[in-house]
Amino acid sequence: MISTKNITFSYSKEQSFIFPDLHCDAGNTILITGDSGKGKTTYLHILAGLLRPTSGSIEIDKTDIVSLSEHKNDKYRGQNIGLVLQKSHFVSALTVLENLEMASWLANGKKNTERAKKLLNELNIANQANKLPSQLSIGQQQRVSIARALMNEPKVLLADEPTSSLDDKNAETVIRLLTDLSKEYKTALVIVTHDSRIKEKFTNKLTLI
Ligand SMILES: Nc1ncnc2c1ncn2[C@@H]1O[C@H](COP(=O)(O)OP(=O)(O)OP(=O)(O)O)[C@@H](O)[C@H]1O
């Protein structure tokens, strides 16, 4: 479960944001929509603890992540929040499987090879496990990014424009995978998008104006 109250943020004196409150239960999905420049990515980065809000609270299960120290916040993110960002940022010298193993190793000091293989299987890319990320198509990289985000059984999965570079078929697949996996793993799923192909599929939406 993720829930926010009275979040405000500013990059500078000239530009400040007041974000509407958001609530999403485990296994459910919420979309953050709105025109370009309204602060969707900024809000997602605040939810991830990558940016600190000026005021307000973000509760994930029973933890207010805004009140955590920087160090605890980084640790909390690694263990509880899955991120699918616009750019995938893989370690280019490591294989797909090694990139996934690294996610669990960084969070808890253990290489969870079994889970990595299970997720690659579920995402239908098990046959790409020993390739380098650069040898995969964009759609396949997107699925690796989702697998990596789910490695540590996160309480919350945050996805920034996960379908923007995908054709209709791949966009549909990615959305189905994200929603199916979030239900299976009881993860609250927050998707930032301006993709009308996605918007029509969900009723739980927050529009930034
Ligand atoms: N690091 C930054 N420093 C200063 N201003 C920023 C920074 N990142 C974003 N902004 C500004 O904040 C505003 C909101 O940006 P943001 O990327 O959150 O919008 P968005 O709704 O996700 O847009 P888009 O749909 O085009 O991706 C924009 O005016 C942008 O120029």
TrEMBL record:
| All residue ranges annotated as the ABC transporter domain in the record | 2-209
Alphabetized, the UniProt keywords read: ATP-binding, Nucleotide-binding, Transport
GO molecular-function annotation terms? ATP binding
Cited Gene3D superfamilies: P-loop containing nucleotide triphosphate hydrolases (3.40.50.300)
UniProt xrefs under Pfam families? ABC_tran
Protein name, per record: ABC transporter ATP-binding protein
Q: Which InterPro entries match?
A: AAA+_ATPase (IPR003593), ABC_transporter-like_ATP-bd (IPR003439), ABC_transpr_LolD-like (IPR015854), MacB-like_ATP-bd (IPR017911), P-loop_NTPase (IPR027417)
Task: Tell me if Nucleotide-binding is a UniProt keyword of this record.
Answer: yes
- Its source organism is Flavobacterium chuncheonense
